[in-house]
From TrEMBL:
Residues 11-168 form the Phosphoribosyltransferase domain. SUPFAM superfamilies: PRTase-like. This is PyrR protein. Pfam families: Pribosyltran (PF00156). NCBIfam families: PRK05205.1-5.
Length: 186
């Protein structure tokens, strides 16, 4: 039996992605000097969806898209109980002078975004960086980081854990909340 509570099912999930795409088009038009970069590993699922939908809406390959690994830029990669596994960085363009939209599934403490900003510097100096997250956990931010485009906001107690599930992995798109992280891992 599933212990988590579904806070967004397939229908709301799809509507949220559609709304985020419309907001991006409203702000960036045809994406002439703007690129989309998914943060590995979990931001890539959302990045893939956004990239595909934006190209559908804009009528072709109009959006540069990359995937950024941040494993060795994390401030905790040496202190974790089990070793972190690196994902490939797939960024075949420089971000020099471009507007970059960083994409992640859940914005929580802000540490992932900090690591992504550091890693991003190896690919040039962007003109501007914006953050898009499917879920903003709002409470317990460790760093002064906020999203520019937020799919949904979840206010939860300290130990609560939010997990985004993708149909590519679990046969269904949904967002769940658990009482704590150990409950989510069972």
């Amino acid at each position: 039996m599933e212990k988590g509570r579904v806070i967004a099912g397939q229908k709301r999930f799809a509507l949220t992605i559609e709304r985020l795409c419309q907001q991006l088009i409203e702000q960036h038009g045809a994406f002439e000097d703007t690129c989309l970069i998914g943060i590995q590993p979990r931001g890539v699922f959302l990045g893939d969806r956004l990239h595909q939908r934006l190209e559908d809406l804009l009528g072709g390959p109009a959006v540069e898209y990359g995937k950024l690994d941040i494993t060795f830029y994390r401030d905790d990669f040496r202190t974790r109980a089990k070793p972190l596994s690196a994902s490939p960085t797939e960024l075949d363009f420089l971000v020099e002078g471009k507007k970059v939209i960083l994409v992640d599934d859940v914005l929580y403490t802000g540490r992932t975004v900090q690591a992504a900003l550091t890693a991003l510097n190896h690919y040039g100096r962007p003109k501007k960086v914006e953050l898009l997250a499917l879920v903003d956990r709002r409470f317990n931010r460790h760093l002064p980081i906020q999203g520019d485009y937020i799919g949904m906001t979840v206010d939860a107690v300290d130990k609560a854990f939010v997990r985004v599930e993708w149909k590519e992995q679990s046969n269904e798109d949904r967002v769940l909340i658990f009482a704590d992280k150990s409950e989510a891992e069972e």
